[in-house]
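Fig. S4 source data, part A: sequence.
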Amino acid sequence: MKAFKAPKTALGTIDAEAAAAMIAAAADIALILDETGTIRDVSVADEDLMNDLAGHANWLGKSWADIVHDDSRTKAEALVAAASSRQEPRWRHINHPASSGPDVPILCAAVRTGTPGGIVVFGRDLRAVSSLQRRLVDAQQSMERDYIRIRHVETRYRLLFQVASDAVLIVDDPAGTIADSNPAARRLLAAAADPGGRWTAAAAFTAETAAGVDRLLTSVRASGRADDVHARLLDGDREVVVSASMFREETGLACLVRIAGSAGQTGDAALPRLKAKLLKLIEGAPDGFVVTDSGGRILTVNATFLELVQLPAEALAHNEPLGRWLGRSGVDLDILIANLRQHGSVRLFATQMRGELGDVTDVEISAVTVMNGGQPCFGFAIRDVGRRLQRGPAAGRAPAFERALPRSLDQLTELIGRVALKDLVREATDAIERLCIEAALNLTGDNRASAAEMLGLSRQSLYVKLRRYGLGDPEPAGAD
């Protein structure tokens, strides 16, 4: 450390007040210690730092080594000992306990004063530096996690690319250079699929079908999608199905070309084409169709579902919970998934769909469980029944509560959250009572007296209930 050359001449005689002001201005926190390391006075420049330091108001009379963190006790004692022996000051990192949150880091140096045994500890606030260090560590850990995740994704991609039975090529656009190809492509197309070469349909397909493949690629470049085309390989008499899709990579756009064996080569020739037609039918169906994973998060949807929930694109629904748009958020989806796991299917579950713009639609949902690669996924068919309910014969005549109440016990659970509990209990009681009376009449061959005795009712009470529930003529001829 380079000290003043002539401090007595330069500074002159400085009184205690001036010295205190200089010390307070030179440090974020300053401590005046005696020769034993006991705190005699404290100066904290920043109010925010003062609030973070735990118990700073009670430091006077305590040993400095006792108020710092346990891992800094030895360093504090060493600073006091070095200052007492008039050694050259050293800066040490000292942690003080905080009133809340992480410890307060202070960079400290101790200097012996002119007062016999007096020591001044200068401290610099390192909270900003510590915060930057924590953020840097967090960012580095986040980058490491992202790197590991990307590496795993790339490993899975390479494995899938290599083991795929269909021929797959990745072609740079518009250069047309084959960036990569899997073993199936190199076996099927031979030299026409070598990476680094230029992709031309004429090198892989017959002249009659190569033009169709070129049109496919042109359409994909223009619109991003196109229907599959059938082509015939140049080497041999084998018919294949060619599909293509565009995607963006670091260097620009690229085209993924997939070549699969034609369905006509197998015994179940029409099956793939029929499946494709079925998928197109579902995509254009007037009912909404949704496929979710086992947790209820959306994997794919059709256009009608997007209309119901008022979303402009399928990407906005991908990986979102289906319950986000159901009438009772979380409740309806939990009920559906629980029934799917227990029974495998659900029929005509009544609920509502809420659109992103506030529209509410009455719907019926039927669902089924399908195994996909050993993992269950759920398919939901969602039908808009709002118009059908509005055209119902009782609509507009019965009170709102009566229209909402169920006609059988099977519908009671559908009204939880829509109807008050006391009304549900009363409706359930009435439904059970009616079912018991109907069962008793069936068992007794419609003999009112025997039915009343079986139910533990008087005949008059039974007749009252028959009139209440409209169960035929309450007092038929010859009832006695």
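Fig. S4 source data, part B ends here. DSSP finds 16 helices and 15 strands in the chain.
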